[in-house]
Write a structure and sequence with these properties.
Layout (H helix, E strand, L loop, with lengths): L7 H15 L3 H4 L3 H8 L4 E10 L5 E12 L5 E2 L2 E3 L5 H18 L4 E7 L8 H15 L8 E2 L12 H7 E4 L10 E4 H9 L10 E4 L4 H12 L3 E7 L2 E5 L7 H12 L5 H4 L6 E5 L12 E3 L9 H9 L4 E3 L8 H14 L5 E3 L1 H4 L2 H15 L5 H26 L10 H19 L5
Parallel strand pairs: 3-5, 3-6, 4-5, 9-10, 9-13, 13-14, 14-15
Antiparallel strand pairs: 1-2, 2-5, 7-8, 10-11, 11-12
Helix pairs in contact: 1-4, 3-16, 4-16, 6-8, 6-14, 8-9, 11-12, 14-15, 15-16
């Protein structure tokens, strides 16, 4: 639509979804869903406001705040807040659009939304951040509520900080004839490994390259180590650290990095502390510097794996890539992975999109809402058990949906990106139809 401004991030997310829907048999079986796509691509509501706050020098500062309330067919809008100088409406529309279908894949009753501001916490004092947040929420608070829009839940849930990273690597494997038995913990990626290897392999012994060094990357790395894998990289916006020994980046090093990030310092500060255990590569992402690896987990930000880097990961022997970040791979990178999947069958790289692989965070956020509504608090074990089951269902739903709407060739892995897109969209479209949103 030529009267609209160019919104590259949102347009990328929209085209990625549409391409998989149109290349499947979904619209043949449900032609009416084309109408739902047209409606669902426009947010129900966008709120934009100014945020005025005072810095430590007593000078007034102003930022732009946003909340994109995208789709409430499945329940109250749900999606977090991003504070970063690059935040704009295109970025938040892309995040909100992805959130709709990610939330649908969890099986919980949550709509999709996203918000944030072009505020940079780096270099700010705790008091400056507090004053900004108070000013931001004073305005946003007029437009949200437990039954309308829940950016986060007061009170919280145990394992909430770990949930996105843990969920990225979770999968449940257990006896199908004993539905009362709690299923055994593993990982989303390990589920991919189990399926691809016919149950012969696990995460144990796998070399894993991870980008990012925030909550998602830290907890994903810790879970990889717990499951017997070796973490060979982490990164931030300024550069990457790559392990130089067979032991990789261990839990103690990750704890050091976590403390560093709490103090809002760069990863380069830790590199010298680790001595010859790692090398620091300034201004680079890790993908082309890690040597031979088995698994890649982009866990930093959008579009952090390019076409060139996708080709490099394939040359490095990567067999499994799952996004811990939202839209972590460019469309060109996804096309490289999907082409390789189709042409190499059982020896191919297998790609899992963020809307499925990193749904653990919002899943526990939904469980958080349930606890708050019922005025109860589950133990870490109870939340963990529910998360495992949700992530198991996310994987199996995408897998089976891909088999239904894009029949794979013999020996070919089903497309998890197409299956997840179709499964999430179909659930939302059906709810919108029931509510009369697009008749």
């Amino acid at each position: 639509m030529t009267n609209l401004p160019h919104e590259p991030e949102f347009e990328q997310a929209y085209k990625e979804l549409v391409s998989t829907l149109e290349n499947s048999t979904l619209f043949e079986k449900h032609p009416e869903y084309k109408k739902a796509l047209k409606v669902a691509s426009i947010p129900e509501r966008i709120i934009q406001f100014r945020v005025i706050w005072e810095d430590d020098k007593g000078e007034l500062q102003v930022n732009r705040g946003y909340r994109v309330q995208f789709n409430s067919a499945l329940g109250p809008y749900k999606g977090g807040l991003r504070l970063h100088p690059t935040v704009n409406l295109s970025v938040l529309k892309f995040l909100g659009f992805e959130q709709i279908f990610k939330n649908a894949l969890t099986g919980l009753n949550m709509g999709g939304g996203k918000g944030g501001a072009d505020f940079d916490p780096k270099g700010k004092s705790d008091n400056e951040i507090r004053r900004f947040c108070c000013a931001f929420m004073s305005e946003l608070g007029k437009h949200i509520g437990a039954d309308i829009d829940v950016p986060g839940s007061w009170g919280g849930s145990l394992i909430r900080p770990e949930a996105t990273g843990y969920g990225l690597v979770y999968v449940s494997i257990g006896p199908t004839n004993c539905d009362y038995v709690l299923l055994i913990i593993s990982q989303y990626v390990q589920h991919m490994i189990q399926y691809a290897s016919g149950g012969k392999e696990s995460f144990s012994g796998k070399k894993v390259t991870i980008s990012g060094s925030g909550n998602v990357a830290q907890y994903a790395a810790l879970k990889v180590i717990e499951l017997g894998g070796t973490v060979v990289s982490l990164s931030d916006s300024k550069g990457a650290i790559v392990a130089t020994t067979d032991k990789g980046i261990d839990a103690e090093m990750i704890e050091t990095i976590a403390k560093l990030k709490v103090d809002r310092k760069q990863l380069s500060s830790a590199a010298t502390d680790f001595g010859n255990k790692v090398k620091y590569i300034d201004g680079a992402r890790p993908w082309l510097h890690v040597g031979n690896v088995d698994v890649a987990l982009p866990s930093a930000t959008q579009n952090e794996v390019s076409k060139e880097e996708a080709e490099g990961l394939i040359k490095a022997g990567v067999k499994f890539i799952a996004e811990g970040s939202n839209m972590g791979c460019t469309q060109e990178a996804i096309e490289v992975f999907e082409a390789h999947r189709k042409s190499n069958k059982g020896e191919a790289i297998w790609y899992a999109p963020g809307k499925a692989a990193n749904a653990g965070g919002v899943a526990v956020s939904g469980l958080e809402m349930a606890q708050n509504s019922a005025r109860i608090k589950w133990t870490s074990e109870e939340v963990d058990d529910r998360l495992k089951l949700i992530m198991k269902n996310c994987f199996e739903n995408g897998l089976q949906t891909a088999k239904t709407y894009l029949t794979p060739s013999e020996g070919e892995f089903p497309s998890l990106v197409a299956g997840s897109n179709i499964a999430g969209f179909s659930k939302v479209a059906a709810a919108m139809k029931d509510q009369g949103d697009w008749w």
